[in-house]
Design a protein that fits this description.
2 domains, 144 residues, 2 strands, mainly alpha
Length: 144
């Protein structure tokens, strides 16, 4: 398949395909005139790249998931570690959502008087709400 066909079938622009080839994520098998050509298996590789990106893996991490012949060779421990990381992100986002929902309907006269909203602010100040936070904050214990 030429690069235009791969782009059409995969949904990745040709520029991204060229970049992925430069990064070693995919490889062309030759050229047809000035256009790169790829084996049909490149679509499976691109699907793995898309899945890896959606899960939050870096392109370097994704590149390590391919053996030298382009076949998937995924380390199960890295999948488990990423799943654990996603669990922590989900907990952090749920805590943030709960705090914001509470603040939206809190009966306190102002947010400054709401203990739950104040915990949310302290957690944000401490960096506990950032994407790289190690431990999720306990923002909402009960509806205060």
């Amino acid at each position: 398949m030429d690069i235009a066909e791969v782009a059409r079938k995969s949904g990745f622009p040709a520029s991204t395909l060229r970049y992925y080839e430069e990064k070693g994520l995919i490889s062309s098998v030759g050229r047809q005139g000035l256009r790169r050509t790829f084996a049909p298996g490149v679509l499976d590789q691109l699907a793995l790249v898309a899945l890896g990106q959606a899960a939050g893996f870096s392109l370097d991490d994704i590149g390590a998931m391919f053996s030298s012949d382009g076949q998937a060779s995924i380390d199960r421990a890295s999948l488990s570690a990423k799943a654990d990381e996603l669990d922590q992100t989900i907990k952090r986002l749920k805590a943030m959502r709960n705090g914001l929902r509470h603040a939206a309907v809190c009966p306190a006269p102002s947010h400054a008087e709401c203990p739950t909203f104040q915990r949310l602010l302290r957690a944000a100040t401490a960096g506990e709400l950032s994407p790289r936070a190690r431990k999720p904050a306990l923002l909402v214990r009960s509806a205060a």
